[in-house]
From TrEMBL:
InterPro entries (UniProt xref): Calcineurin-like_PHP, Metallo-depent_PP-like, PAPs_N, Purple_acid_Pase-like_N
SUPFAM superfamilies: Metallo-dependent phosphatases (SSF56300), Purple acid phosphatase, N-terminal domain (SSF49363)
One Pfam family of this chain: Pur_ac_phosph_N
Residue ranges constituting the Purple acid phosphatase N-terminal domain according to the UniProt record: 239-336
Coiled-coil portions: none
Gene3D superfamilies xrefs: 3.60.21.10, Purple acid phosphatase-like, N-terminal (2.60.40.380)
Calcineurin-like phosphoesterase domain mapped to chain residues: 346-524
PANTHER family reported for this sequence: ACID PHOSPHATASE TYPE 7 (PTHR45867:SF3), PURPLE ACID PHOSPHATASE (PTHR45867)
Keywords: Signal
Protein name, as recorded: Metallophosphoesterase family protein
């Protein structure tokens, strides 16, 4: 039987029971502990980049490299960068082995200076080869520096072993504390954001040592080489990036988010029922949002308002801005869900990747289907979710479609990257917080619209709690129609997700989920109805699995899929789904506005 992604994490934790005894404090070391400098890596890099912006022309940013940085940094800044990236205490003399990927062109500036020496040995995993650098430390603090000023994603990792094999090693006060300590051996993983990339070769002397795991995203902490970016859509004192979502009941609430530059300190929404002049003002929650390497728009403000107590099935007008400055956007419209509605329609996309061609398709769909209630995107909304300029392009290209129809997305692997989470995604969308407690409050959630239940699941960060939550939601639901949306498609030609099939698809069978909507593989596939991994002869006996794409496909061939009803290896599509009089009508449109796939489910 294939080991599930959920079981895998449990197995990894079990590896902590090894011959060497070690302990990790539950919280990180205080960066201002007397054993450490008064600054953190982030504080230093924030200050350094601010100084770059003040003293270096943007034309020179592409030329900034390791040599530039070593000349530009002060002695104290170099000291922090050489010591505060990773640190911990040991109780006995130890040897620290540092595995540095051989493809990284520049050796970290501090490595030789601090006494590390390169050995003749290597460590390998299934993709990369690492050279081994070693240094002996006496009992006390061990300090290590940044991987470099480049963004070399397979960052270094370390193992620690006692110099005297009879010593009982204890590791305490480790920073950062969120990454587990494992046992170094064949089959061990090093990167939490690529946990199935396993060690295949290692010297015998490292076998059984304490392995400090990490994430590839740590390459970004001091990244400057090729790191400076410019947004095509910088903020101003005028509101933009206006987007509607729901975090509560669609019948009586709406959430409104927008952007301004930091000169606008506070935000407000003015709204009124269509056809009246009775205007209500609601103050926004305003948060500052930083992208350090976005040199023409480093800081912005994001404003969010939750409107509650609205009338069911009613049309409203609203505008966003600031009462303090008496500066407002133009008026926009939204409509609440009618009480006990059973007829509605919505549109969903697969991966959009902030593609301007996708946005053109969105605008055509918006004109073609003015009656729809909301939009959804099945993850990979942008290509690099940690770059705010990409989110600026997403909103800039969609041209305010989402200011009048809510967007209810799920995160994809490109929206959360390199083990650093999807924090920008969460800052930009106000979504329900009714998912399992063990995941981010807005990553997995549920909402009902009409007589349909929508389970919006973060498949990029799955765990057992989600499985329990999915079953609870379906078991307790009285909805006529049940849908699930998540990024990784359980059935596809390229990378079938056997763990998702094992963990979730059986639950979908038990409670008869009508459709699962996904993206990720960059092609179009709609399955025949399936139950227990097999094709069945009726939509009322099985679940339809659909994979779609808003940006273009990237496959020359798409193999064979005996369970598939319709497939396209390229093209941009959207799905228009209508529920009316107990019938689900599914239509897939291409860029030309042609229906290229359709079916009906009757209940």
């Amino acid at each position: 039987m294939t080991k599930s992604i959920f079981q895998e994490s449990i197995v990894k934790r079990a590896l902590l029971h090894v011959a060497v005894v070690f302990f990790v404090v539950s919280c990180s070391v205080d960066p201002k502990n007397k054993q450490h400098s008064g600054s953190t890596i982030k504080e230093v890099m924030d200050s350094v980049i601010t100084r770059v912006y003040a003293n270096v022309s943007p034309n020179e940013y592409p030329t900034i490299d390791d040599a530039f940085m070593l000349d530009f940094l002060t002695k104290d800044e170099k000291s922090v960068l050489a010591t505060q990236y990773q640190y911990f205490k040991v109780n006995v003399p130890v040897t620290v082995s540092l595995m540095r990927n051989i493809d990284q062109k520049t050796i970290p500036f501090w490595l030789k200076e601090s006494g590390f020496q390169k050995t003749k040995d290597q460590v390998k995993n299934e993709v990369y080869t690492y050279e081994i650098w070693q240094k002996d430390f006496e009992p006390g603090w061990v300090h290590l520096g940044i991987p470099g000023f480049d963004k070399h994603r397979p960052v270094y990792f370390i193992t620690v072993g006692p110099k005297n094999i009879s010593d009982e090693l204890k590791i305490t006060e480790a920073y950062p504390s969120e990454y587990s300590l494992e046992t170094m051996k064949k089959g061990a993983f090093t990167y939490h954001d690529w946990s199935d990339l396993n060690i295949t070769e290692l010297p015998a002397e490292l076998e059984g040592q304490v392995l400090f795991t990490t994430v590839r995203g740590r390459a970004r902490e001091a990244h400057v080489e090729g790191a400076f970016r410019k947004t095509k859509f910088p903020s101003s004192n005028k509101p933009d990036q206006i987007v509607l979502t729901w975090s509560k009941d669609p019948t009586n609430s709406i959430d409104i988010q927008w952007r301004t530059d930091t000169s606008v300190k506070n935000g407000d929404v003015a709204y009124w029922k269509t056809g009246t002049n009775d205007t209500v003002f609601v103050q926004a929650t305003t948060k500052s949002m930083e992208d350090r390497m976005l040199y023409n728009d480093r800081y912005i403000h994001r404003h969010t308002v939750h409107l509650n107590g609205l009338d069911h099935g009613s049309s409203y007008k609203y505008k966003v801005g600031s009462k303090e400055d008496d500066s407002w956007s133009k008026p926009y419209n939204f409509k609440t869900e009618a009480d006990q509605t059973t007829d509605f329609s919505f549109i969903w996309f697969g991966d959009t990747h902030k593609d301007p061609k996708w946005a053109e398709n969105l605008q055509k769909a918006n004109l073609r289907h003015p009656e729809i209630s909301f939009y959804s995107i099945a993850g990979d909304v942008v290509t690099t979710g940690l770059y705010r300029n990409e989110w600026d392009e997403f909103f800039g290209y969609e041209k305010e479609v989402f200011s009048q129809k809510p967007l209810m997305p799920v995160p994809g692997n490109h929206d959360r990257q390199d083990g650093l989470g999807a924090w920008m995604y969460y800052e930009l969308f106000s979504l329900p917080e009714n998912g399992p407690k063990e995941v981010h409050p807005e990553s997995t959630y549920a909402f009902e619209y009409g007589n349909a239940l929508f389970l919006m699941i973060d498949s990029t960060h799955p765990n057992e709690a989600q499985t329990v939550w999915i079953e609870e939601q379906l078991r307790n639901s009285k909805a006529t129609w049940k849908f699930a949306m998540f990024h990784f498609p359980p059935y596809n030609f390229e990378e079938p997700y056997l763990d998702i099939q094992e963990a979730w698809c059986g639950i979908f069978d038990t409670y008869h989920v009508d459709m699962v909507m996904s993206g990720h593989i960059h092609y179009y596939m709609r399955s025949k109805p399936m139950n227990d991994g097999k094709v069945v002869d009726s939509f009322n006996k099985g679940t339809v699995y659909a994979v779609s794409i808003g940006t273009n496909g990237n496959h020359d061939e798409i193999g064979q899929e005996p369970y598939a009803e319709k497939r396209f290896k390229e093209g941009r599509y959207y799905q228009h789904m209508t529920i009316k009089n107990g019938i689900l009508q599914y239509n897939t449109y291409n860029e030309a506005g042609e229906i290229v796939d359709s079916f009906e489910i009757k209940k």
